[in-house]
């Protein structure tokens, strides 16, 4: 597979911090998080833009975003959750993906270079454990 997004979504890329997956989607921690808990939701089938996604996969992406937003609020107590997606030439993975980013008042967040707050990128395994523990408590 040449597409990085396809390799991530299908578990081929090494050192992934997968926090949830089903037959249609994979949810992983971003390797360069803007804030701790920054998550990507990717369909396993290749799509570039949101308007290409079949209805079943689109519902699965939205269901996962609702579930993970609940978990991120529970774990990190953010002031809000940013949900975003870039398409076309702005899609850096050349594969559809949705970002879920915990936000805090005054966090200085702008879409540019990652903030790397307090070394969040170095705590990805611990972040994964926290989120999966709450996922299992709330949804299993």
UniProtKB/TrEMBL annotation:
<protein>
    <submittedName>
        <fullName>HIT family protein</fullName>
    </submittedName>
</protein>
<dbReference type="InterPro" id="IPR001310">
    <property type="entry name" value="Histidine_triad_HIT"/>
</dbReference>
<dbReference type="Pfam" id="PF01230">
    <property type="entry name" value="HIT"/>
</dbReference>
<dbReference type="InterPro" id="IPR011146">
    <property type="entry name" value="HIT-like"/>
</dbReference>
<dbReference type="GO" id="GO:0003824">
    <property type="term" value="F:catalytic activity"/>
</dbReference>
<feature type="short sequence motif" description="Histidine triad motif">
    <location>
        <begin position="95"/>
        <end position="99"/>
    </location>
</feature>
<dbReference type="GO" id="GO:0009117">
    <property type="term" value="P:nucleotide metabolic process"/>
</dbReference>
<feature type="domain" description="HIT">
    <location>
        <begin position="4"/>
        <end position="110"/>
    </location>
</feature>
<dbReference type="InterPro" id="IPR036265">
    <property type="entry name" value="HIT-like_sf"/>
</dbReference>
<feature type="active site" description="Tele-AMP-histidine intermediate">
    <location>
        <position position="99"/>
    </location>
</feature>
């Amino acid at each position: 597979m040449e597409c990085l997004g396809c390799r991530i979504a299908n578990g081929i890329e090494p050192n992934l911090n997968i926090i949830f997956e089903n037959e249609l989607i994979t949810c992983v921690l971003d390797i360069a998080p803007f804030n701790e808990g920054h998550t990507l939701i990717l369909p396993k089938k290749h799509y570039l833009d949101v308007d290409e996604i079949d209805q079943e996969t689109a519902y699965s992406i939205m269901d996962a975003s609702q579930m993970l937003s609940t978990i991120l609020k529970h774990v990190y107590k953010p002031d809000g959750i940013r949900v975003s997606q870039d398409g076309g030439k702005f899609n850096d993975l050349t594969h559809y993906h949705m970002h879920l980013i915990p936000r805090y008042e005054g966090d200085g967040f702008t879409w540019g270079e990652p903030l790397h707050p307090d070394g969040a990128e170095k705590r990805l395994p611990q972040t994964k454990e926290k989120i999966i523990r709450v996922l299992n408590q709330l949804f299993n």
